[in-house]
Design brief:
Structural class: mainly beta
Order of helices and strands: EEEEEEEEEEEEEEEEEEEEEEEE
Largest sheet: 5 strands, parallel
Shape: globular
Number of helices: 0
Strand order of the largest sheet: 1-6-11-16-21
Strand content: over 45%
Distance between the termini: 25 Å
Length: 174
């Protein structure tokens, strides 16, 4: 998504897998792979669900059941509202994994990203071999979360070779 949008009543039922990221080492996996722009935009995502397994097999993957990553530059302001979106598919990968959103990258601490996540649930296992993993959001600096629930296991796989401190949370990894 590269501008203002409303996405409603969408369901993914097909599995999502990336075995090798792009040449720059990044891959974004989710019902919406990534949201990126440097304009001012408002994006509303409502009543969406992921019902399939999501898997990224390399460190460069950023994975979410609904959104893999939000990458926003300091040239614009993003308002992102996510309401009543659920993940029912198991998710596995290395770093930056969330049942709803994998990672928010940008200037959220400077007020350029306003994120509201309400009434969202994760009802599937999330397994990492790395870090920054949460039932709802893998990694975020600043957000408003209300009435969100994680009912399943968020865990580090045995034999993990995470190179830095592991941050795993039932709601947010970091």
């Amino acid at each position: 998504i590269n501008g203002s949008a409303t996405i409603e009543n969408i369901s993914n039922k097909a599995g999502l897998t990336i075995l090798k990221p792009s040449d720059n080492g990044n891959a974004y996996i989710g019902m919406i792979g990534f949201i990126a722009k440097n304009l001012t935009a408002t994006i509303n995502i409502k009543n969406c669900s992921n019902n399939a397994k999501v898997e990224g097999q390399t460190n460069g993957c950023k994975i979410g059941g609904i959104i893999g990553a939000v990458i926003w530059s300091d040239a614009g302001k993003l308002t992102l509202n996510i309401d009543n979106c659920d993940n029912f598919g198991d998710i596995t990968g290395a770093n930056y994994i969330g049942g709803v959103i994998g990672v928010i990258e940008g200037q959220s601490t400077q007020g350029l990203i306003t994120l509201s996540v309400t009434n969202c649930d994760n009802e599937a296992d999330i397994t990492t071999t790395g870090t920054y993993v949460g039932g709802i959001i893998g990694n975020i600096a600043k957000a408003y979360l209300k009435d969100c629930t994680n009912t399943e296991l968020v865990s580090v796989a045995s034999g993990s070779t995470a190179s830095k401190a592991v941050t795993v949370g039932g709601i947010a990894g970091s």
